[in-house]
Amino acid sequence: MCELLALSSSQPARLTFSLRALAARGGPAGRSHDGWGVAFYQGSDVALFREPVAAANSALVRFLESEGPATELAISHIRHATQGGLSLANTQPFVRTLGGRMHVFAHNGDLPGIFANEALAPGSFRPVGKTDSEHAFCALLSRLAVLYPPGGQPSLRERLSVLTPFAAELRALGPANFLYADGDALFAHGDRRMQSAGGRAEAPGLWVLPRECTATPAGTDALAGVSIKLTPRFSFLVASVPLSEAGWQPLAEGELLVVRSGTLVGDGLT
Questions:
Q1: Catalytic positions, written as ranges
Q2: Distance between CA 259 and CA 214 in Å, rounded?
Q3: C-alpha distances in angstroms, 137 versus 7, 82, 120, 187?
Q4: What is the b/e burial string over 185-211, where b = at least 16 CB atoms within 10 angstroms of the residue's CB?
């Protein structure tokens, strides 16, 4: 299956060890070697980097480890293709604009039947590629679009009123771990994934690592795997599997978390 990684931080940070660990899972020896991508929020815009090649062999991944932009919010994805050919258009994460904001989405799982599901039609947000994941993203944006007032943003409660049933509908189709960000918050939905033992789709599909660090000399947090430029800070990592020996916590099947500036602020319960 695909691999997901997200970072939310109260101060600008760089993905370092975590990006390398995720890239290693996208190597030729593994299953997830069909492309990679990462979206870094930079103020109101997003710097997006994607390649339809194995991440572990990518010179661009190695460049981003040392020279990538510092960010307070990032989403990354390593692809194992199940629907759609190997192409840039089918490489996640996907980015769209809505309500004057940049929206980012990445999905881990398989959603058979979504293309014929009228309730999950993409509406006016037409997919560029051929994946079930991008189709799901467009369907989500189509639902969110009706909430956006001119020149404003819907409340967190309003956004959750769309995301919670949307996540439940995806789970009914197949494994539906996803990361979604709208520049204000990170939404992480945990479901099932193919576990190495047993070969069945089971929870957990996502793991989280919240961190609170007091003022120390700026540098690399080896436990969290991110390089922080300013301290003190809060950081919150989400990944498909634990990327270090630190205290990663599994998400329950159907759990939807909301994170702002490295701090958990709410959840959407099924």
A1: 2
A2: 19
A3: 20, 16, 10, 13
A4: bbbbbbbbbbeeeeeebebbbbbbbbb
Q: What angle do CA 135, 208, 53 make, to 5 degrees?
A: 50
Could you give the CA distance from residue 269 to residue 34 in angstroms, rounded to a whole number? 33
- Let me know: does 47 contact 69? Beta carbons within 8 Å: yes
**Which residues are CB-neighbours of 86 under 8 A, at least 6 positions away?**
34, 35, 52
Average pLDDT, the chain: 85
User: Which CB contacts under 8 angstroms, 24+ apart, belong to 122-131?
Assistant: 125/96, 128/89, 129/84, 129/87, 129/89, 129/90, 129/91, 130/83, 130/84, 130/85, 130/89, 130/90, 131/83, 131/84, 131/90, 131/92
The pTM of the full predicted model, rounded to 2 decimals, is 0.89
Q: Which carries the bigger pLDDT value, residue 138 or residue 82? A: 138
**Boundaries of every domain in the chain:** 3-268
Confidence of residue 225 (pLDDT cuts 50, 70, 90): low
Tokens of 138: 């467009």
CA contacts within 13 A on the Cβ side of 184: 11
Q: Which two tokens stand for residue 172?
A: 């009914």
The number of residues in the chain equals 270
Question: What is 3-268's CATH topology?
Answer: Glutamine Phosphoribosylpyrophosphate, subunit 1, domain 1 (3.60.20)
**Phi/psi zone of residue 105: left (φ > 0), alpha (ψ -120 to 50 degrees), beta?**
beta
